[in-house]
Amino acid sequence: MVSHHEPNVDMSERERIVLENIKTNPDLHHNALLKLIVPEFMAKTTFEKTRDSLLEKEIIFVETKGNMKFYHLTENYEQKLHQHIEWTTNISFHDLKSQIKRLQTDYPHKDVDEKITIANSLLRNLLKTDNGFTVLDSAKNPKKTLYRDEHLTIQQLIHHVFDVIKHDKDFEIIFPTILSYLGIIMPKSSLK
Known about the structure:
Blueprint: H1 11-24, H2 30-37, H3 44-56, E1 60-65, E2 68-73, H4 77-106, H5 112-140, H6 148-166, H7 171-182
Antiparallel strand pairs: 1-2
């Protein structure tokens, strides 16, 4: 088995390396780009995974000429990204509202592990969705909160999830576990 030595770089660093090489060398076909990046910056499989990730995120696209593939940066990527964020954030928002509407009737019938999993998932997704609206607010108009109603609704949904947990028979087990999972640390003085 052949082992490839690869510097310890994270995914964003790998994506940056591939993007920079595509931008500065737009006329290089796949194999020439591969030779430029491998093995100096990453292994071949890592390059392919990074390229696939960039293609999946639509940050780059492939142009085929004959039997050769050329990679290019996606035009208007920022605008397309904002449209994608808006679309996924709105879908998530409406999906979470319907899930939480059923929470009060479904939640008490679950076992403790399921309750923790459901609550963690809902709260994490509510926070992610709120972050999506915050990103959209800052991109569209950093001086105004355009998604004020959505932010307020998310705040109310978070309160509702905590309210369902608070009134659950397993509250004393579930609540600390959920706060710990979310990374919410209680001040030491309040634990006495």
